[in-house]
Amino acid sequence: MQMGPQRPQGTPRRPGLPPAPRTIVYPLPQETRALARSQGGKCHNLGLWLDRFVLYEQKGTSWELTQQAKRREGAPLDLRIIKPLLEACVARWQAMLTHYAQRGYRVEQFSAAPDWRLIVGLGAAHVLETSITLHRIYGFPFIPGSGLKGMTRAYAELVLGKSEENEDFRRIFGSQQRDREQAGAIIFFDAIPTQVPLVKLDVMNPHYGEYYRGGSTPPADWLSPVPVYFLAVERTPFLFALAARRKEANGLTPTVVKWLKAALNELGVGAKTAAGYGYFS
Hints:
By secondary structure, this protein is α+β, with helices and mostly antiparallel strands. 28% of the residues lie in helices and 15% in strands.
């Protein structure tokens, strides 16, 4: 999809005029470009925009990211348009938990909001250097259950001093030891937002990039910073839930939900927790 004016092919440029602007395009298949054009170039899915509709400049036979793309200009950070989809997703989430509870499996759920900002998936591989974990279909931010399980396990080990020598610990989180191999008895569900997420553009400003990359330039105050942009979720409440995988583990669920709440409060979830991100009250 062309984003700038073009000079008709073969038309000579008048002398004295400034060079024609470079053409900015979506490097997409023809059918996909036609679909984007039919929508007026608009994309309301944040995940689709970041993964597929990133703007490039074509320079000869190579492609280069635009500064607009790096600053996420044009990204649909206002997600209010997906409110009906989010509400439907929350309804299905609740129906799933009800299904578990009706069949005798202990379910624990609660809602909590980050004290400030939250960023999950910052270090994932992405063409824009920094990433964010988004729902594959709807494009809203969520917290994977695998991350919550890992954070809770870290809390049990680092704060409570638990280990795989403890039988309840092995039952809760499972074990890969050859003689104790077993799946965890507690299911950690993905945490999803209860309302339209507030997504903000944030920035890291490293000053000593060459030094951090192992170069010969020592860190100094006169070096120029290189801003690195990323997206974060601000003060948006999320729904958290746990359930017993087997009915015999129903008695473990209240203990694990206490550990999960404490881990969210004391360790934080996601990236940049040392800078205050990812803590929940």
